């Protein structure tokens, strides 16, 4: 059995899902060197509906365990160049 992973819920003052996704992308870009973060699992929720989460990035896995770096629901196939 593996140890449980911990989730950091980080509230923002942003008022749109697109703005929150943009902030998540900026955090991923600036903190991608920190191995403790699994940005591929990033989800968003409204403050009063935290049980309803929206995935930010595509969940498809590529060779080496990397994930597709494109937004959830992207058109076309996942591309290796877009993985993070």
What does the model show?
By secondary structure, the chain is mostly helical. It contains 1 helix and 2 strands, in the order H-E-E. The protein has a two-stranded antiparallel ribbon. The longest helix has 15 residues. It is globular and about 35 Å long.
Spatial separation of the terminal alpha carbons: 27 Å
Helix share bin: 10-25%
**Shape, per Cα inertia axes:** globular
Strand order of the largest sheet: 1-2
Task: Give the amount of beta strand, in percent.
Answer: under 5%
DSSP helical segment count? 1
Structure classification: mainly alpha
Average pLDDT rating: 87
Largest sheet: 2 strands, antiparallel
Count of DSSP E strands? 2
Low-confidence stretches: 80-84
Order of helices and strands: HEE
Radius of gyration based on Cα positions: 14 Å
Provide tags for this entry.
84 residues, mainly alpha, 18% helix, 2 strands
List the helices and strands and how they pair.
Layout: H1 17-31, E1 43-44, E2 54-55
